[in-house]
Amino acid sequence: MLADALPAPTLVPVGLGARAYQIAIGPGLLREIGPRLARLRPGARVGIVTDSHVAERHLATVEASLREAGLAPTTVTVSPGEASKSFDTLQQVLDGLLAARIERRDLVLALGGGVVGDLAGFAASVLRRGVDFVQVPTSLLAQVDSSVGGKTGINSRHGKNLIGAFHQPILVLADTDVLDTLPLREFRSGYAEVAKYGLIDNAAFFGWLERHWQEVFRGGASRIEAIATSCSAKADVVARDEFETGDRALLNLGHTFGHALEAGAGFSQRLLHGEAVAIGMAQAFRFSAAQGLCAPQDAERVAAHLKAVGLPTRIPDIPGELPDTEGLMALIAQDKKVSRGALTFILARGIGASFIARDVDPATVRAFLDAERG
Length: 374
Fold this sequence. Notes:
The structure is a single chain. This protein has 374 residues and is of the alpha/beta class. It has 14 helices and eleven strands. It has helices spanning 2-5, 33-40, 52-68, 87-99, 114-126, 140-146, 184-201, 203-218, 221-240, 255-264, 273-290, 296-308, 325-332, 362-372; strands at 10-14, 21-26, 45-51, 72-78, 107-112, 133-137, 151-156, 159-166, 171-175, 343-348, 354-360. The chain is globular. The strands form three sheets. It has a seven-stranded mixed sheet, sandwiched between helices. It has a two-stranded antiparallel sheet with strand order 7-8. 47% of the residues lie in helices and 18% in strands.
């Protein structure tokens, strides 16, 4: 069989005791979904949540694999894009899963990028007070970040991911073949999250990316290595701090600035999540340099690498109008890391030396944003 000829996937464990699971990374995994899930839930109903773009490319393969393994799939298809992380779409998904009679012994399967994963995972967390789900991420961003760690949720007009729950998947299947169908802009967006893992606490990995990023974009062994390294880094943090009460917040490097910019751009195609994170990471390093925490050369090196792969690094790189500085400050104040009004940022003492900075002076941030707007 063709599946038998495929190389064994790279496996990354997520150590959460009784709720531990594996991330399988490699080519051809969509065709193996049926047998893998049948081993976990023989004869189960599987409620697939996907978007129309992903469905067009990959749904037939997944449904066929599930049926051949004796599983009963039903699909709920949503519109692509960040706007689907809403109450209205959540209700659509829940109604579809209930109509399909997905029960506690069944499975929800998130087939798509980060939006679908967050939405389907949140739906699974509240459906019948909790149904197990499987992440099948189809974007680079989802494979290295949002599919791992159990953060699920939707957006509010007040900000990104402010409504949600921690609900761990029981399995993550990252098929690297599907990344070949991604538009270049989407792949670049995901790459920002890959670079993040080097900037947090792995300077050697960031240096490796500077040398090998073109090979990561082309695919093959370097791509698998980059994804596996990223997943392993996230898995280690999640195992230490599942509910983000400590150093898991480091994974939000670039996200405080980035989420405010995303919200300011209306969660639209003007600014993809990874693009916002790229600007946010560059800003975090420039802000750190301005505060004397890291060398200006470090901030320049971060921005140079992100620019080299085609990512934005400054607010003026975002097309269209954005809120003024006070508007951005109001959005930053809604960040999930804010505690009793005190601003928390992930800053850096150098590449691979990020840290959690609590009670950051709003006036200093305001002045920095004024300068950043150019």
